[in-house]
Structures
1.
Amino acid sequence: MSFAIAVDGPAGAGKSTVSKRAAQKLHFVYVDTGAMYRTIALYLLEHDVDTEDEEALSEALSKIRIGIEYRDQTQCMFLNGEDVSDRIRTPEVSQGASVAAAIPAVRQKLLDLQRSMAAEADVIMDGRDIGTNILPDAQLKIFLTASVEERARRRYLELSQNGTACSLEEISREIEERDWRDSHRETAPLCRAEDAVLLDTSDMTLDEAVDALTQLAKERMS
Ligand code: CDP
């Protein structure tokens, strides 16, 4: 049976960076489920789909083919055959993903894909509802968080390094808005699973957070 580590938490907590590094150390496959929601959001934004119009949404979803490929241990996202890995990282797509992720039909479309990836390999899967909904039997569940200020600072640095113009205040506001929407939606809201280990990385370096996760995984595997 494969081993699954579920990493959930709010926006910009460092889930993807920490999970990706820990996956390399543990020889696990890193699965970024947020990238899947972002890919759907990109299609909906680019095709001006009214997400409140059930028929239009359902037609759009039927036209979306999501492809995932791993290159140099990096998860690349394909939307109907086109590599969109970079284009899904804008603040606009972040907000769009959080709106789309509240729609049950969108979540349903990704559920089987996420579960089948965990069935096929040892995974570290990060998202919002992995421990609570997608992989409730994961052998290790982590709720990774940090203060809003620290999360906004990290996301600001990341976006600035990628050349995206943004302000710290704006990023902070967007993160709070997204957290609120993600935690208050009806379907699979962001919340800590009862059996998840809380890892607050506000005062941790990246290496410390990676070591903490890796250590917990090794304990559970032995
Ligand atoms: O990297 P960051 O924390 O900014 O976001 P992400 O993990 O890429 O996720 C983008 C959005 O997708 C989130 O704000 C959630 O609304 C949604 N999401 C979700 O609902 N469930 C997941 N398992 C993963 C992401």
2.
Amino acid sequence: MRRPMVAGNWKMHGSQATNQALLAELEGHVRPDWPIDIAVFPPYVYLADAVRALEDGRIQVGAQDVCAEAGGAFTGQVGASMLKDVGCSYAIVGHSERRRWYHEDDTLVARKFAAALAGGLKPVLCVGETLEEREARQTESVVARQVDAVIAMHGVGGFADAVLAYEPVWAIGTGRTASPAQAQEVHAFLRSRIGAHDAKMAARLRILYGGSVKAGNAAELFAMPDVDGGLVGGASLSADEFRQICAAAAVHH
Ligand code: PEP
């Protein structure tokens, strides 16, 4: 019912030379008949090159962030319509690294979500709790607050063209993955939270898991009924790891 998706967040890694090699390898690895969506998220400066390198469109390209403003005097920022203009399909909003290091709060993330949609991009909204919050049994209240901020600002309608990613902060870049049962529990909670507003939309919404997804754990995570693929950081920089993660998602369509 839901087409799985595997998204590769390259973070601040790569160069023209290494990106070219990685994309060429990925294109060679990815099977055209896999019934999944695949996207890579290189740093801004490499987006146009990535779009050109992936001309046939089998692998789509997205940005790791987007400005909340549509355009104007905002030095250093990049707007959704610019990203669309160079061929991007998606923009990640609310990644925990941006929430943490750049102090992005729920309101700003909700504005970025709307800006992405207004510019013709599909937002990939990241939500997730820290280790302290999990240990204090606040996981559900934290992810509910993060999702509710978007719904409060724009209604639930935006989720029709969005992707949600559950990324427990304690699992990102740490090698410590949520167990399939832990991921499933939060994914089901998120789907029901959105389902309380619009059950049909919630049933169609893709919810990706992110946090140390690797070739070795992807299959068991993607086997969970509410896990519709992965948002992959570190392992997306290896064509072979990423291919195996995509193959695991293709099995669970
Ligand atoms: C991420 O950056 O979204 C992520 C999940 O990273 P990693 O896979 O490296 O934990």
3.
Amino acid sequence: MNTRRRQILKELNLLPVWRLKPGIAKQSTLPVPQAVEVEHSPLTSEPVKDSAQLPVSEMNWDQLKAAVSQCVACPLSQARTQTVFGVGDENADWLFVGEGPGAREDEIGEPFVGQAGKLLDQMLAAIQLKRGEGVYIANIVKCRPPNNRNPTLNEAQQCEPFLTRQIALIKPKLIVTLGKVAAQNLLNRDDSISSLRGKVHSYSGIPLIVTYHPAYLLRSLPDKAKAWKDLCFARATMQSLR
Ligand code: SF4
């Protein structure tokens, strides 16, 4: 500041002049605005709806998978390693539904991968079917019930919208339930599995056939013959639908 200006400021009683110390002047204490990214659909350039805002009944496959993987709607979320969504052909004619993931499924993230899974693959092969080829496999609940217990009614009801949406997206021609829990939940009945076998039931207009869970068949070999009969019945039913 030159002498003349300092003199004027002094006379106006405007001294001392406040300045930032060297070094501090280079620092900004104001927050730097961050760029906000908005996801857009590549086709419409419209912002993509957050799947969390969508009802499950309107989700596509990706949204549904994401919603299941983040779900904490029931207590089964607490002990799981991961959710087990389902596996197979998303346009399958055949849908097999079990009750819930076991230890191995919880570890791998795929339904029916242990000994029971091997038996299911053999059952499929017996009627010329193969996992993933015209076949989809899912469960009533997507998280492992502790100690392989059956899912409770509340857990099954909390998870139901996910399976309902999977079925709506797959549009299978025939559903085969594996075990009592799957049959009772999809048919909304308390009847024993033996009384439900051998008939064509209906789930929202889709034919549904009941058979035993492969894990039960591993413990009860005599009932394998009955399961074989059920599979033959399912195959004949599918042929009648074509
Ligand atoms: Fe959610 Fe189903 Fe897992 Fe329960 S079992 S936490 S409802 S995904």
